[in-house]
Amino acid sequence: MSSHRNNSNGFLVGLATIFVLAALAWWLWHREVQPSPPLTASVSASTNTIYPPANATTSAATSSPTASTNGSLQNIYRSLQIATDTATARKQLADLRTALSAMPTNEAVAAIKQFLDSKADVSTHLGFKVAKNGLLDDAPTLRTFLLDELVRLDPSAAADYSKVILASKDSPDEWAVALRNLAWNDTSADGRALLEQKTTEMLEYEPWQQNPSTGFLEAFDTAVYIGGTSLMPALTDLVRRQDNPAVAHASYLALDRLVINNPTATLTALLADPNLMQGREATRANYFARADVRDPQQKQVLENYLLNPHTSVAEIDAFAGIFPNANYMISPNLLTQSQTPDRPALVSRDAESLRVVQGWITDPRFVQLLPSLEKMQARLAGYVRQESQ
User: Fold this and answer.
1) How far is 346 from 344, CA to CA, in rounded Å?
2) Does the N-terminal peptide bond of residue 324 adopt cis geometry, omega within 30 degrees of 0?
3) Which of 70, 57, 64 is nearest to 25 (CA)?
4) What is the pLDDT of residues 247-282, one digit of tens each?
5) Is residue 33 part of a domain?
6) Is residue 288 part of a domain?
7) pTM of the model
Protein backbone atom coordinates (compact mmCIF):
# COMPACT_ATOMS: atom_id res chain seq x y z
CA MET A 1 0.00 0.00 0.00
CA SER A 2 1.28 3.45 -0.83
CA SER A 3 0.14 7.04 -1.00
CA HIS A 4 1.09 9.72 -3.46
CA ARG A 5 0.66 12.42 -0.92
CA ASN A 6 0.15 12.17 2.84
CA ASN A 7 -2.68 14.37 4.04
CA SER A 8 -3.46 14.78 7.72
CA ASN A 9 -7.19 14.66 7.17
CA GLY A 10 -7.22 12.08 4.42
CA PHE A 11 -8.16 8.51 4.62
CA LEU A 12 -5.37 6.17 3.56
CA VAL A 13 -6.25 2.74 4.43
CA GLY A 14 -6.09 -0.69 3.19
CA LEU A 15 -7.35 -4.03 3.86
CA ALA A 16 -4.72 -6.25 5.21
CA THR A 17 -5.10 -9.76 3.88
CA ILE A 18 -3.38 -12.78 5.41
CA PHE A 19 -4.11 -16.00 3.78
CA VAL A 20 -4.14 -25.54 0.83
CA LEU A 21 -3.05 -28.94 1.28
CA ALA A 22 -2.20 -31.95 -0.84
CA ALA A 23 0.21 -34.62 -1.79
CA LEU A 24 0.86 -35.53 -5.42
CA ALA A 25 -1.85 -37.84 -6.71
CA TRP A 26 0.49 -40.47 -8.04
CA TRP A 27 2.61 -40.34 -4.88
CA LEU A 28 -0.48 -41.09 -2.87
CA TRP A 29 -1.27 -44.00 -5.21
CA HIS A 30 2.09 -45.69 -4.58
CA ARG A 31 3.04 -44.65 -1.04
CA GLU A 32 1.20 -45.88 2.00
CA VAL A 33 -0.27 -42.96 3.89
CA GLN A 34 0.59 -42.95 7.58
CA PRO A 35 -2.42 -44.32 9.41
CA SER A 36 -4.50 -41.63 11.02
CA PRO A 37 -6.61 -41.91 14.15
CA PRO A 38 -10.21 -43.00 13.63
CA LEU A 39 -12.04 -40.15 11.91
CA THR A 40 -15.01 -38.50 13.52
CA ALA A 41 -17.24 -35.72 12.28
CA SER A 42 -15.50 -32.38 12.79
CA VAL A 43 -16.77 -28.82 12.61
CA SER A 44 -15.27 -26.00 10.56
CA ALA A 45 -14.74 -22.80 12.51
CA SER A 46 -15.48 -20.74 9.43
CA THR A 47 -18.60 -22.46 8.11
CA ASN A 48 -20.04 -24.52 10.99
CA THR A 49 -20.36 -27.40 8.54
CA ILE A 50 -20.12 -30.95 9.92
CA TYR A 51 -17.61 -32.90 7.87
CA PRO A 52 -18.44 -36.51 7.06
CA PRO A 53 -15.81 -39.26 7.34
CA ALA A 54 -13.64 -39.56 4.26
CA ASN A 55 -15.20 -42.86 3.18
CA ALA A 56 -18.70 -41.38 3.25
CA THR A 57 -18.38 -39.74 -0.16
CA THR A 58 -15.90 -41.68 -2.27
CA SER A 59 -15.21 -45.31 -3.04
CA ALA A 60 -11.73 -46.60 -2.26
CA ALA A 61 -11.52 -48.15 -5.71
CA THR A 62 -8.81 -46.79 -8.00
CA SER A 63 -9.79 -48.50 -11.22
CA SER A 64 -9.81 -45.19 -13.14
CA PRO A 65 -7.79 -41.94 -13.02
CA THR A 66 -10.82 -40.04 -11.71
CA ALA A 67 -11.35 -42.59 -8.94
CA SER A 68 -7.67 -42.31 -8.05
CA THR A 69 -7.95 -38.54 -7.85
CA ASN A 70 -11.02 -38.83 -5.64
CA GLY A 71 -9.06 -41.12 -3.36
CA SER A 72 -6.22 -38.62 -3.28
CA LEU A 73 -8.56 -35.80 -2.30
CA GLN A 74 -9.97 -37.96 0.47
CA ASN A 75 -6.48 -38.76 1.73
CA ILE A 76 -5.67 -35.05 1.74
CA TYR A 77 -8.89 -34.40 3.60
CA ARG A 78 -7.84 -36.99 6.19
CA SER A 79 -4.36 -35.59 6.65
CA LEU A 80 -5.59 -32.02 7.02
CA GLN A 81 -7.96 -33.05 9.79
CA ILE A 82 -4.96 -33.80 11.99
CA ALA A 83 -2.45 -31.33 10.53
CA THR A 84 -1.42 -28.18 12.39
CA ASP A 85 1.67 -27.17 10.42
CA THR A 86 0.86 -24.40 7.92
CA ALA A 87 4.12 -24.91 6.03
CA THR A 88 3.27 -28.56 5.43
CA ALA A 89 -0.27 -27.68 4.38
CA ARG A 90 0.98 -25.07 1.93
CA LYS A 91 3.42 -27.61 0.44
CA GLN A 92 0.67 -30.20 0.11
CA LEU A 93 -1.55 -27.72 -1.70
CA ALA A 94 1.20 -26.83 -4.14
CA ASP A 95 1.79 -30.52 -4.83
CA LEU A 96 -1.93 -31.11 -5.36
CA ARG A 97 -2.08 -28.20 -7.80
CA THR A 98 0.80 -29.74 -9.75
CA ALA A 99 -0.88 -33.14 -9.80
CA LEU A 100 -4.24 -31.77 -10.93
CA SER A 101 -2.69 -29.69 -13.69
CA ALA A 102 -0.87 -32.78 -15.00
CA MET A 103 -4.12 -34.73 -15.36
CA PRO A 104 -6.58 -34.54 -18.25
CA THR A 105 -8.67 -31.47 -17.49
CA ASN A 106 -12.04 -33.22 -17.59
CA GLU A 107 -10.87 -35.81 -15.05
CA ALA A 108 -9.46 -33.22 -12.67
CA VAL A 109 -12.60 -31.10 -12.93
CA ALA A 110 -14.87 -34.11 -12.34
CA ALA A 111 -12.93 -35.08 -9.22
CA ILE A 112 -13.05 -31.54 -7.81
CA LYS A 113 -16.77 -31.20 -8.44
CA GLN A 114 -17.49 -34.59 -6.87
CA PHE A 115 -15.58 -33.60 -3.75
CA LEU A 116 -17.34 -30.22 -3.57
CA ASP A 117 -20.71 -31.93 -4.00
CA SER A 118 -19.94 -34.09 -0.97
CA LYS A 119 -19.95 -30.96 1.26
CA ALA A 120 -16.84 -32.30 3.00
CA ASP A 121 -14.37 -29.65 4.13
CA VAL A 122 -11.43 -29.09 6.43
CA SER A 123 -9.36 -26.12 7.51
CA THR A 124 -5.92 -25.57 6.01
CA HIS A 125 -4.89 -23.26 8.88
CA LEU A 126 -3.99 -20.70 6.22
CA GLY A 127 -5.51 -17.31 5.54
CA PHE A 128 -7.49 -15.92 2.61
CA LYS A 129 -4.73 -14.21 0.64
CA VAL A 130 -5.30 -12.65 -2.79
CA ALA A 131 -2.50 -12.55 -5.35
CA LYS A 132 -1.92 -9.75 -7.84
CA ASN A 133 -3.79 -11.65 -10.57
CA GLY A 134 -6.90 -12.13 -8.40
CA LEU A 135 -6.26 -15.81 -7.72
CA LEU A 136 -5.50 -17.00 -4.19
CA ASP A 137 -2.01 -17.37 -2.78
CA ASP A 138 -3.52 -19.02 0.29
CA ALA A 139 -6.96 -20.50 0.94
CA PRO A 140 -8.44 -21.11 4.40
CA THR A 141 -10.21 -24.39 3.60
CA LEU A 142 -9.92 -27.30 1.23
CA ARG A 143 -13.15 -26.33 -0.52
CA THR A 144 -11.99 -22.75 -1.03
CA PHE A 145 -8.74 -24.03 -2.48
CA LEU A 146 -10.57 -26.35 -4.87
CA LEU A 147 -12.91 -23.58 -6.04
CA ASP A 148 -9.86 -21.47 -6.79
CA GLU A 149 -8.20 -24.40 -8.53
CA LEU A 150 -11.30 -25.06 -10.62
CA VAL A 151 -11.07 -21.67 -12.34
CA ARG A 152 -7.41 -22.31 -13.17
CA LEU A 153 -8.30 -25.61 -14.82
CA ASP A 154 -11.61 -24.86 -16.54
CA PRO A 155 -13.02 -21.29 -16.35
CA SER A 156 -16.37 -22.26 -17.85
CA ALA A 157 -16.87 -25.09 -15.38
CA ALA A 158 -15.88 -22.75 -12.56
CA ALA A 159 -18.51 -20.22 -13.62
CA ASP A 160 -21.17 -22.91 -13.79
CA TYR A 161 -20.26 -24.31 -10.38
CA SER A 162 -20.34 -20.81 -8.90
CA LYS A 163 -24.11 -20.94 -9.31
CA VAL A 164 -24.18 -24.03 -7.09
CA ILE A 165 -22.18 -22.26 -4.38
CA LEU A 166 -24.28 -19.09 -4.62
CA ALA A 167 -27.53 -21.04 -4.23
CA SER A 168 -26.96 -21.35 -0.48
CA LYS A 169 -25.13 -19.25 2.10
CA ASP A 170 -22.74 -21.84 3.52
CA SER A 171 -19.47 -19.90 3.52
CA PRO A 172 -18.59 -16.24 2.82
CA ASP A 173 -15.11 -17.25 1.68
CA GLU A 174 -16.57 -19.65 -0.87
CA TRP A 175 -18.94 -16.90 -2.03
CA ALA A 176 -15.99 -14.55 -2.54
CA VAL A 177 -14.29 -17.04 -4.87
CA ALA A 178 -17.56 -18.00 -6.57
CA LEU A 179 -18.44 -14.34 -7.29
CA ARG A 180 -15.00 -13.83 -8.79
CA ASN A 181 -15.27 -16.98 -10.93
CA LEU A 182 -18.72 -15.94 -12.15
CA ALA A 183 -17.60 -12.39 -12.96
CA TRP A 184 -14.56 -13.58 -14.88
CA ASN A 185 -16.27 -16.20 -16.99
CA ASP A 186 -19.95 -15.41 -17.47
CA THR A 187 -20.32 -12.00 -19.09
CA SER A 188 -23.81 -12.68 -20.42
CA ALA A 189 -26.69 -10.45 -19.40
CA ASP A 190 -28.04 -13.22 -17.16
CA GLY A 191 -24.60 -13.73 -15.64
CA ARG A 192 -24.22 -10.04 -14.89
CA ALA A 193 -27.70 -9.88 -13.37
CA LEU A 194 -26.95 -12.87 -11.16
CA LEU A 195 -23.64 -11.34 -10.11
CA GLU A 196 -25.33 -8.13 -9.01
CA GLN A 197 -28.16 -9.98 -7.25
CA LYS A 198 -25.80 -12.22 -5.30
CA THR A 199 -23.43 -9.37 -4.43
CA THR A 200 -26.35 -7.46 -2.97
CA GLU A 201 -27.43 -10.54 -1.00
CA MET A 202 -23.91 -10.95 0.37
CA LEU A 203 -23.61 -7.31 1.42
CA GLU A 204 -26.96 -7.44 3.23
CA TYR A 205 -26.50 -10.82 4.94
CA GLU A 206 -26.26 -9.99 8.63
CA PRO A 207 -24.64 -13.22 9.93
CA TRP A 208 -21.65 -12.57 7.67
CA GLN A 209 -21.60 -8.89 8.61
CA GLN A 210 -21.49 -9.66 12.32
CA ASN A 211 -18.38 -11.84 12.17
CA PRO A 212 -16.77 -10.91 8.86
CA SER A 213 -14.18 -13.26 7.42
CA THR A 214 -11.33 -12.00 5.27
CA GLY A 215 -12.99 -13.49 2.21
CA PHE A 216 -16.22 -11.63 2.96
CA LEU A 217 -14.35 -8.33 3.17
CA GLU A 218 -12.35 -9.04 0.01
CA ALA A 219 -15.61 -9.79 -1.83
CA PHE A 220 -16.61 -6.12 -1.55
CA ASP A 221 -14.40 -5.67 -4.61
CA THR A 222 -17.21 -7.30 -6.60
CA ALA A 223 -19.26 -4.13 -6.05
CA VAL A 224 -16.39 -2.10 -7.52
CA TYR A 225 -16.24 -4.46 -10.50
CA ILE A 226 -19.99 -4.15 -11.13
CA GLY A 227 -19.75 -0.36 -10.96
CA GLY A 228 -22.66 2.00 -11.37
CA THR A 229 -24.74 3.20 -8.45
CA SER A 230 -27.15 0.31 -7.85
CA LEU A 231 -25.13 -1.08 -4.93
CA MET A 232 -24.54 2.29 -3.28
CA PRO A 233 -27.47 2.02 -0.81
CA ALA A 234 -26.10 -1.25 0.57
CA LEU A 235 -22.55 0.10 0.76
CA THR A 236 -23.49 3.41 2.36
CA ASP A 237 -25.61 1.58 4.92
CA LEU A 238 -22.54 -0.45 5.93
CA VAL A 239 -20.27 2.61 5.97
CA ARG A 240 -22.49 4.03 8.70
CA ARG A 241 -22.09 0.93 10.90
CA GLN A 242 -19.83 2.49 13.51
CA ASP A 243 -20.21 -0.63 15.69
CA ASN A 244 -18.63 -2.77 12.94
CA PRO A 245 -15.37 -1.08 11.91
CA ALA A 246 -14.11 -3.90 9.64
CA VAL A 247 -17.25 -3.92 7.50
CA ALA A 248 -17.51 -0.11 7.56
CA HIS A 249 -13.92 0.14 6.37
CA ALA A 250 -14.40 -2.36 3.53
CA SER A 251 -17.49 -0.42 2.45
CA TYR A 252 -15.60 2.87 2.62
CA LEU A 253 -12.88 1.52 0.35
CA ALA A 254 -15.37 0.09 -2.14
CA LEU A 255 -17.23 3.41 -2.34
CA ASP A 256 -13.97 5.31 -2.66
CA ARG A 257 -12.95 3.21 -5.65
CA LEU A 258 -16.39 3.65 -7.20
CA VAL A 259 -15.83 7.41 -6.95
CA ILE A 260 -12.37 7.09 -8.50
CA ASN A 261 -13.66 4.93 -11.36
CA ASN A 262 -16.81 6.94 -12.13
CA PRO A 263 -16.71 10.22 -10.20
CA THR A 264 -19.51 12.12 -11.91
CA ALA A 265 -22.19 9.44 -11.52
CA THR A 266 -21.15 8.37 -8.03
CA LEU A 267 -20.83 11.88 -6.60
CA THR A 268 -24.11 12.94 -8.22
CA ALA A 269 -25.85 10.04 -6.48
CA LEU A 270 -24.30 10.97 -3.13
CA LEU A 271 -25.38 14.58 -3.59
CA ALA A 272 -28.92 13.65 -4.60
CA ASP A 273 -29.58 11.74 -1.37
CA PRO A 274 -27.87 13.21 1.72
CA ASN A 275 -29.36 10.40 3.83
CA LEU A 276 -26.99 7.92 2.19
CA MET A 277 -24.11 9.28 4.28
CA GLN A 278 -26.02 10.61 7.27
CA GLY A 279 -23.69 10.61 10.26
CA ARG A 280 -20.63 10.15 8.03
CA GLU A 281 -20.51 13.60 6.47
CA ALA A 282 -16.73 13.91 6.91
CA THR A 283 -16.35 10.70 4.94
CA ARG A 284 -18.61 12.11 2.23
CA ALA A 285 -16.32 15.16 2.12
CA ASN A 286 -13.40 12.86 1.33
CA TYR A 287 -15.31 11.40 -1.59
CA PHE A 288 -16.16 14.82 -3.03
CA ALA A 289 -12.54 15.85 -2.62
CA ARG A 290 -11.79 13.22 -5.30
CA ALA A 291 -13.43 15.45 -7.93
CA ASP A 292 -11.06 16.56 -10.66
CA VAL A 293 -11.93 20.13 -11.65
CA ARG A 294 -10.10 19.73 -14.97
CA ASP A 295 -13.24 17.85 -16.04
CA PRO A 296 -16.17 20.29 -16.52
CA GLN A 297 -18.76 17.76 -15.34
CA GLN A 298 -16.91 17.00 -12.14
CA LYS A 299 -16.33 20.69 -11.53
CA GLN A 300 -20.07 21.34 -11.84
CA VAL A 301 -20.92 18.51 -9.44
CA LEU A 302 -18.39 19.90 -6.98
CA GLU A 303 -19.81 23.41 -7.15
CA ASN A 304 -23.31 22.02 -6.60
CA TYR A 305 -22.00 20.18 -3.53
CA LEU A 306 -20.28 23.26 -2.05
CA LEU A 307 -23.32 25.47 -2.60
CA ASN A 308 -25.86 22.89 -1.42
CA PRO A 309 -27.64 24.09 1.76
CA HIS A 310 -27.46 20.54 3.15
CA THR A 311 -23.64 20.64 3.13
CA SER A 312 -22.71 21.74 6.65
CA VAL A 313 -19.87 24.04 7.66
CA ALA A 314 -18.14 21.11 9.37
CA GLU A 315 -18.31 19.06 6.18
CA ILE A 316 -16.95 21.96 4.13
CA ASP A 317 -14.05 22.26 6.58
CA ALA A 318 -13.31 18.54 6.18
CA PHE A 319 -13.40 18.97 2.41
CA ALA A 320 -11.10 22.01 2.57
CA GLY A 321 -8.50 20.03 4.49
CA ILE A 322 -8.00 17.41 1.79
CA PHE A 323 -9.13 18.73 -1.62
CA PRO A 324 -7.92 17.55 -4.07
CA ASN A 325 -7.75 14.14 -2.44
CA ALA A 326 -4.61 12.45 -3.78
CA ASN A 327 -4.41 9.52 -1.38
CA TYR A 328 -4.58 6.18 -3.16
CA MET A 329 -4.49 2.64 -1.86
CA ILE A 330 -2.61 0.00 -3.80
CA SER A 331 -3.56 -3.60 -3.05
CA PRO A 332 -4.27 -6.89 -4.85
CA ASN A 333 -8.00 -7.41 -5.40
CA LEU A 334 -10.17 -10.30 -6.51
CA LEU A 335 -11.51 -8.57 -9.62
CA THR A 336 -10.23 -5.03 -10.14
CA GLN A 337 -6.87 -3.33 -10.42
CA SER A 338 -5.90 -0.29 -8.37
CA GLN A 339 -5.46 2.76 -10.58
CA THR A 340 -3.31 5.70 -9.48
CA PRO A 341 -2.35 8.88 -11.37
CA ASP A 342 1.27 9.59 -12.21
CA ARG A 343 3.15 12.62 -10.94
CA PRO A 344 2.55 14.84 -14.01
CA ALA A 345 -1.21 14.26 -13.65
CA LEU A 346 -1.10 15.16 -9.96
CA VAL A 347 0.90 18.31 -10.65
CA SER A 348 -1.54 19.36 -13.36
CA ARG A 349 -4.50 18.64 -11.12
CA ASP A 350 -3.06 20.69 -8.24
CA ALA A 351 -2.40 23.66 -10.50
CA GLU A 352 -5.91 23.65 -11.95
CA SER A 353 -7.45 23.15 -8.50
CA LEU A 354 -5.60 26.25 -7.27
CA ARG A 355 -6.83 28.26 -10.23
CA VAL A 356 -10.44 27.17 -9.66
CA VAL A 357 -10.32 27.89 -5.91
CA GLN A 358 -8.97 31.36 -6.64
CA GLY A 359 -11.93 31.88 -8.96
CA TRP A 360 -14.36 30.75 -6.26
CA ILE A 361 -12.85 33.25 -3.83
CA THR A 362 -13.85 36.13 -6.11
CA ASP A 363 -17.25 34.60 -6.98
CA PRO A 364 -20.10 36.15 -4.92
CA ARG A 365 -21.89 32.79 -4.82
CA PHE A 366 -19.16 31.42 -2.55
CA VAL A 367 -18.85 34.34 -0.16
CA GLN A 368 -20.03 32.31 2.84
CA LEU A 369 -17.31 29.75 2.15
CA LEU A 370 -14.49 32.29 2.08
CA PRO A 371 -12.60 31.03 5.20
CA SER A 372 -12.52 27.46 3.88
CA LEU A 373 -11.62 28.60 0.37
CA GLU A 374 -8.72 30.66 1.65
CA LYS A 375 -7.48 27.66 3.60
CA MET A 376 -7.55 25.59 0.40
CA GLN A 377 -5.82 28.35 -1.54
CA ALA A 378 -2.92 28.54 0.91
CA ARG A 379 -2.42 24.77 0.97
CA LEU A 380 -2.63 24.36 -2.79
CA ALA A 381 -0.28 27.28 -3.39
CA GLY A 382 2.25 25.45 -1.20
CA TYR A 383 1.84 22.26 -3.25
CA VAL A 384 2.29 24.11 -6.52
CA ARG A 385 5.43 25.85 -5.27
CA GLN A 386 6.95 22.57 -4.16
CA GLU A 387 6.07 20.84 -7.40
CA SER A 388 7.66 23.59 -9.50
CA GLN A 389 11.02 23.26 -7.77
Assistant:
1) 5
2) yes
3) 70
4) 999 999 999 999 999 999 999 999 999 999 999 999
5) yes
6) no
7) 0.81
